[in-house]
Write a structure and sequence with these properties.
- There is one protein chain.
- The protein has 710 residues and is mainly alpha-helical.
- Among the domains are: 321 residues, Rossmann fold (3-Layer(aba) Sandwich), CATH 3.40.50; 57 residues, no CATH class.
- The protein has 30 helices and eight strands.
- The strands form two sheets. Strands 5-4-6-7-8 form a five-stranded parallel beta sheet, with helices on both faces. A three-stranded antiparallel beta sheet has the order 1-2-3, with no helix packed on it.
- A hairpin with a 2-residue loop joins strand 1 and strand 2.
- Helix 20 packs antiparallel against helix 21.
- The N and C termini lie far apart (116 Å).
Length: 710
């Protein structure tokens, strides 16, 4: 009997097909509606571009520039970190060498990118290839991790770089999606992370995220980036099961980032992570949660005994006590660090592993640990034939560190390089690049690498610049969690001694020699906007407004979209009545480039106050405090502006709010002292001036009032 393939009306198959057609029509309708909504939101200007690179212009030619909102997909905008300014020619110069550095703050060059690792690498390569243009593109960003770098990597293909350098791993726990993050969800499954990030690429997803953030803010205060202090309550113990997810995600992200580089036609250099083991104590420590009460008591007694002996410089007794504590509980990070330092002091060859173990036990995980470095080695080693090279920075720094343990000779604090550290990593990278770059690009290379002192000359490293960096690092390290480290006092004393030595670079007589160093180097590299920017900062530090303005105007000729220079110009000019109008103009430009930036609003408020436009000034200060309620500068400058108008009660209120944010605001204490003097309250003035002297021992006005002139 022949079968009939035609559908019979009312048969089950026909009904199912009709349902399928209706479902397909509904899906298509939703897609069309969502597409229309997405288009409408874009036309209305809702949301922001998400690519790392945007189309711009430099020197009258097309250039790729950085996207200041790139990190908004990964962290709340008020905490968002911005890339370094970039102006990369779309059309590469013939026979040029282009290298991209990816990573976090250590790769970026924090605390001063002008003399950081990418700049040191560029100096090395340019000296090795004097007849080629060398571009080392700094694509690293503070506070990000491999989840962000993986996404960023896919945006770099248009650069057509010869090589990528990947130096990442310090922020896997504390960065976006890590178990110790402050940026939102912690350790969600990988597919959810990727789905959420894909949604955030759309304007609809951004609008939904902005709405969700606004709802969340009704139950919390908007929080801007506040450094590592933000992470104090985000401790992650060594046995935390979430660390397995961190490692798995890191490996997947690393593999994908490498593949993105290879797909873009670049050789890929992958480095293990070097950290300060000898001179950076663990940030957080805890006992084994399973430790019984009596064992915990015995451990506490032995540890206290060891601390007391160490304080008395009785190393033998301290070692014996610490060894007893270790036998009870060997998973306490600070105990391991202290015992390792005592071992190092007596030339114990087993000291180095103890420092590494202390790092791995640290419950505030701001440093890449042994497991992450092992993953890097496993993923990248032995792949030269595939265009992937491994460099082992961790082991190289160990070999070159004092007694086999890297410390302050390479690092400012826990992970960020001093120039010798940047040079060592750059030398290691350059050696790999000499093997990785195509033979045609290596033609004509000089036979040897330049030495550290020549790199310093090319980067114009000065006593003034090093003092500025050391001062900033010391201020950073006087706040938690640095201030709670076991060796915090030693580090602070070291930095003070260093600053005293470098202080000669701040003397008036030191300006001309340092300025001449910049002039000589700029004659050789007139297109180096970073040097012009640093030259402007030198002029500003020595009170030369005209020189700073000239240098920063040159920066804008080279990199026209530079937001930071406009802000710097506005801040500097806003401090003088005669330049306040010019300051306003620069700050309006800065506001156009990055609307609703709190720092711009503060400087604008200062300028408007000097122009006697107080209602506008207060509106700017008010906006700054709403954008960043924790921005100390906003309250201080608002108070100073009000005091300048004779509105002492209102000024005292703002200055008091500033001191609520930080009791160490010398400017707040100073202006409260002046208000007290005007009101005839000598006791209050004396108390405030005493605080000024505590914070600034050489403050002339405070010393004269207190009867102890300079």
């Amino acid at each position: 009997m022949a079968s009939d393939d035609k559908a019979v009306p009312g048969a089950p198959g026909a009904g199912m097909r009709r349902q399928g057609q209706r479902l397909l029509a509904a899906i298509l309708g939703c897609v069309v509606a969502l597409g229309g909504l997405e288009l409408s939101l874009r036309v209305a200007g809702v949301g922001w571009p998400t690519a790392f690179l945007l189309k711009g212009e430099a020197g009258g030619k097309p250039a790729w520039v950085e996207n200041p909102r790139f990190t908004w997909r990964f962290m709340p905008p008020e905490m968002g970190r911005t890339p370094q300014p970039l102006a990369i020619p779309v059309q590469r110069e013939e026979r040029s060498i282009r290298v991209v550095v990816l990573g976090e703050s250590a790769a970026m060059g924090d605390p001063e990118p002008a003399v950081g690792y990418p700049r040191a690498l560029e100096a090395l390569l340019q000296a090795r290839f004097p007849n080629r243009r060398v571009e080392v593109i700094n694509a690293a960003i503070t506070a990000i991790n491999s989840h962000v770098i993986r996404e960023l990597a896919h945006d770099l293909a248009p650069l057509k770089a010869d090589a990528w350098v990947i130096y990442m791993g310090n922020n896997e726990v504390t960065g976006p999606f890590g178990p110790g993050t402050v940026f939102g969800s912690t350790t969600p499954p990988g597919p959810l992370v990727r789905m959420g990030l894909a949604l955030r690429k759309t304007r609809l997803g951004q609008a939904m995220g902005t709405w969700a953030d606004a709802v969340a803010r009704t139950s919390r205060t908007a929080r801007s980036w506040g450094g590592l202090e933000m992470f104090l309550d985000r401790q992650v113990l060594v046995g935390d099961p979430r660390l397995a997810s961190v490692r798995s995600a890191f490996e997947a992200n690393l593999r994908e980032t490498i593949e993105a580089g290879r797909a873009a036609g670049a050789r890929v250099i992958v480095s293990t992570i070097a950290v300060n083991l000898r001179d950076s104590a663990p940030f957080g420590s805890t006992n084994d949660p399973a430790l019984a009460a009596d064992a915990r008591a015995s451990w506490t007694a032995a540890y206290a005994e060891g601390r007391a002996a160490e304080d008395k410089s009785d190393g033998r007794a301290a070692r014996a006590a610490y060894d007893r504590a270790l036998r009870i509980d060997g998973d306490h990070a600070e105990l391991m660090f202290r015992r390792s330092r005592l071992a190092l002091a007596i030339q114990d060859t087993n000291a180095a592993p103890g420092f590494a173990r202390a790092r791995d036990l640290d419950t505030l995980r701001f440093r890449a640990d042994s497991d992450l470095n092992a993953i890097i080695r496993r993923v990248a080693s032995g792949r030269e034939a595939e265009g992937v090279w491994l460099i082992d920075a961790e082991r190289t720094f160990e070999r070159n560190g004092a007694q086999g343990v890297p410390g302050d000779e390479f690092f400012w604090e826990h992970v960020h390089f001093r120039l010798p550290g940047s040079y060592l990593l750059a030398l290691l990278t350059g050696t790999a690049l000499m093997e990785a770059l195509p033979a045609g690009l290596r033609e004509g290379a000089q036979p040897d690498w330049i030495q550290l002192d020549e790199v310093a000359r090319r980067l114009v490293v000065t006593s003034w610049g090093d003092h500025r960096i050391a001062e900033g690092v010391r201020a950073r390290c006087r706040r938690p969690p640095f201030s709670s480290q076991a060796n915090a006092a030693e580090r602070d004393a070291r930095l003070q001694r260093e600053m005293a030595t470098l202080g000669k670079g701040l003397l008036p007589t030191a300006f001309n020699p340092q300025a001449e160093s910049f002039r000589k180097r700029l004659a050789q590299a007139p297109g180096d906007w970073v040097l012009h920017d640093q030259f402007g900062r030198l002029h500003e530090s020595f009170g030369d407004v005209a020189g700073a303005t000239e240098a920063w105007r040159t920066v804008l000729k080279i990199i026209p979209h530079h937001f930071g220079v406009r802000l710097q110009l506005g801040r500097m000019l806003a401090t003088r009545d005669e330049t306040a109008a010019e300051a306003e103009a620069w700050l309006r430009e800065a506001d156009r480039l990055r609307p609703r930036t709190a720092e711009v609003q503060v400087a604008l408020g200062q300028a408007l106050a000097r122009l006697k436009r107080m209602p506008e000034a207060e509106a700017a200060f008010g906006l700054a405090t709403r954008l960043r309620p924790d921005l100390l500068e906003a309250r201080v400058q608002w108070g100073v502006a009000l005091a300048g108008q004779g509105r002492d009660a209102e000024a005292a209120k703002q200055l008091g709010l500033a001191l609520d944010l930080s009791t160490n605001s010398a400017l707040s204490h100073l202006h409260l002292a002046r208000i007290a003097r005007r009101q005839g309250d000598t006791n209050a003035a004396r108390m405030r001036y005493a605080e000024v002297l505590r914070l600034s021992p050489n403050h002339r006005e405070a010393r004269e009032f207190m009867g102890s002139p300079l």
